[in-house]
């Protein structure tokens, strides 16, 4: 039997699409993702306090927000499975989605697979991965390995500052290492970092190597303006250097932009293939907020509903 609508991804975009589609009686089937797209629930599962999602005056924890969205979608009849989709065959309609254990046919698809954290390429990254290097401060920052130590965060965007602010709760000091002389982060986040007594900004600097023994013990840094190299001791390095959209599984079947984000016909969520819609961070290198992802998930569900209507499926 074919599903009317399959949603891939369970961050704010996928779950909002599921809530809307379920309320429209489309009985959406949702691949929540597991390994390749990260944990089910997307990036909010590794975020702490979310203060800017409307409706929550006092803020709430990222995982709590996702769990509430998930429960809301299930309440209206969305079905979910914690698996990735490995291939999508768009050569026929209904489309065919597969992974190692199942094959699902879908009349319409919403792709909301989000984006994953980028990893710095430098000597020592592989060697010290999990031995001082991490891509997720909120997952690992409170571990005994990092407590009371001087830590480094690579990057100059909002993520880097968010990670540094979180790490400063446990670390003796946190140094944000950024390759340019100006941070990319929003004004409010920059202010937060500059005023924080435990956060240091090291600008115009690149990480040339991660050094250590059994565990990482420091970084070899180079100032990009003077060329001067310095060795500094750090007990940990966290990645805050942006994200890559999770579109590899599409294997070129949809039109992507030069960075790999799915192209959609704004303001609709239609992709280059009729019947396939995309929402959230997998389409969005610019805004990438939980609320903008949720908004586009809502639009995707409405677009899919209208498309299914044209096929006489309701
Ligand atoms: P981003 O804004 O793309 O910033 C990535 C940072 O990493 C940039 O400073 C970039 O340097 C640096 N970088 C990239 N590749 C690098 C490399 N190979 N080596 C060294 N540095 C490298 O990504 P983001 O911080 O993840 O933020 C993404 C979006 O999410 C933004 O729109 C942001 O506002 C939003 N966000 C918001 C919040 C919040 O409001 N609480 C929190 C997190 C994220 P350059 O500046 O030189 O390019």
What does this 3D model show about the protein?
The chain is α/β, with parallel strands linked by helices and 314 residues long. The chain has 2 domains: 2-116 and 243-310, 3-Layer(bba) Sandwich (FAD/NAD(P)-binding domain); 119-239, 3-Layer(bba) Sandwich (FAD/NAD(P)-binding domain), CATH 3.50.50.60. The chain contains 6 helices and 19 strands. The protein has helices at 12-23, 62-75, 137-140, 158-167, 187-195, 290-310, and strands at 2-8, 29-31, 49-50, 60-61, 79-81, 87-89, 95-98, 103-111, 115-117, 133-134, 150-154, 173-177, 199-202, 205-212, 216-223, 229-233, 236-239, 243-245, 276-278. The strands form 5 sheets. Strands 1, 2, 5, 6, 7, 8 and 19 form a 7-stranded mixed beta sheet that branches. A hairpin with a 5-residue loop joins strand 15 and strand 16 (229-233). The longest helix is centred in the last third of the chain and has 21 residues, at 290-310. The chain is elongated and about 65 Å long. Bound molecules: NADP nicotinamide-adenine-dinucleotide phosphate. NADP nicotinamide-adenine-dinucleotide phosphate binds at residues 120, 154-160, 162, 178-180, 184, 186, 240-243, 288. Residues 120, 154-160, 162, 178-180, 184, 186, 240-243, 288 line the site of NADP nicotinamide-adenine-dinucleotide phosphate.
List the helices and strands and how they pair.
Blueprint: E1 2-8, H1 12-23, E2 29-31, E3 49-50, E4 60-61, H2 62-75, E5 79-81, E6 87-89, E7 95-98, E8 103-111, E9 115-117, E10 133-134, H3 137-140, E11 150-154, H4 158-167, E12 173-177, H5 187-195, E13 199-202, E14 205-212, E15 216-223, E16 229-233, E17 236-239, E18 243-245, E19 276-278, H6 290-310
Parallel strand pairs: 1-2, 1-8, 2-5, 8-19, 10-17, 11-12, 11-17, 12-13
Antiparallel strand pairs: 3-4, 6-7, 7-8, 9-18, 14-15, 15-16
Helix pairs in contact: 1-2, 1-6, 4-5
